[in-house]
From TrEMBL:
The lineage of its organism: Bacteria, Bacillati, Actinomycetota, Actinomycetes, Mycobacteriales. Belongs to the short-chain dehydrogenases/reductases (SDR) family. PANTHER family: 3-OXOACYL-(ACYL-CARRIER-PROTEIN) REDUCTASE (AFU_ORTHOLOGUE AFUA_6G11210), SHORT-CHAIN DEHYDROGENASE_REDUCTASE FAMILY PROTEIN. InterPro entries: NAD(P)-bd_dom_sf, SDR_fam. The keyword Oxidoreductase applies. The keyword Protein transport does not apply. This is SDR family NAD(P)-dependent oxidoreductase.
Length: 271
């Protein structure tokens, strides 16, 4: 799909990959609603992009795991630019490490990393089927294909996000709805370093695991890769190409892969 002339919503657009996606979409000729829980951050990204491409974005605050808030964003896009053609479900949370994660931690991770995607798709996909075209881009993680040392909430919900994107692709791919799933490793965003800042041994190990497994990419690099994949209508977006080989090794010999991950975890924890 070409992005020129399209109307997009980017969640988690107040910085990181989301902010870079907003800028890349604007350069490509799209008009964008920038959504973020932090309304000031969303407006700041919108203002910065509009300073280069006047009037092509609008910023809005809101909890994008809330159906009513997603409806509000869709209505805002319609009022400002027209019907939504593309939805980038990019907002995410890292989650608490270990089995100490409480019920509220699990609820937050499930809501933001998974249900936000489901709720947006329920609102948009029927419209796209009727119009014959639409694009849903899910930001998951390499953790959704492999795992995440430290955080069960992150690993489990990112696996679920990949599974939902797969299901969307299979179920609606022949009806005009395109779906891609972004699964990067380390990207230079605030989210990457939350575990390191937590002071928790598993949390710090999680950050070291990601930063030692491959290059830490800049959000702008990832955004360019995403839009290239969208143009090709490619499902799996892997900014770190080695993830594919890791995923193949996992499937080829699961027990060996698990032993290797335990060994890797021991090295990170200094055991």
């Amino acid at each position: 799909m070409e992005v020129a002339g399209k109307v997009a919503i980017v969640t988690g657009g107040g910085g990181g990959i989301g902010g870079a996606l907003v800028a890349a979409l604007a350069r490509g000729g799209a008009r964008v609603v920038v959504a973020d829980l932090d309304a000031a951050a969303a407006r700041a990204v919108s203002d910065r992009v509009n300073s280069h491409y006047p009037g092509v974005t609008v910023g809005a605050g809101g909890d994008v795991s809330d159906t009513a808030q997603i409806e509000r964003l869709i209505a805002l896009a319609g009022a400002e630019f027209g019907p939504v053609d593309m939805y980038f479900a990019n907002a995410g949370v890292a989650g608490a490490p270990g089995l100490d994660a409480g019920e509220l931690d699990w609820d937050l991770s499930i809501d933001v990393n998974l249900r936000a995607h489901v709720r947006a798709a329920k609102l948009l996909v029927p419209q796209w089927v009727e119009r014959g075209e639409g694009y849903f881009v899910s930001t998951a993680s390499a953790a959704g294909l492999l795992t995440q040392i430290g955080s069960a909430t992150y690993s489990v919900t990112k696996h679920a996000a990949v599974g939902f994107a797969e299901w969307l692709n299979i179920t609606y791919g022949d009806r005009g709805v395109r779906v891609s799933c972004l699964c990067p490793m380390g990207v230079n965003t605030r989210l990457l370093y939350e575990g390191q800042e937590s002071g928790d041994a598993l949390g710090m190990a999680a950050t070291r695991a990601v930063t030692s497994a491959g290059a830490v990419l800049e959000p702008e690099t990832v955004a360019d890769i995403v839009l290239a994949a969208v143009q090709e209508e490619r499902f799996l977006i892997l900014p770190h190409e080695q993830v594919l080989e890791m995923y193949r090794n996992k499937g080829a010999d699961y027990d060996r892969w698990l032993r290797g991950m335990r060994r890797f975890q021991r090295s990170l924890l200094g055991q």
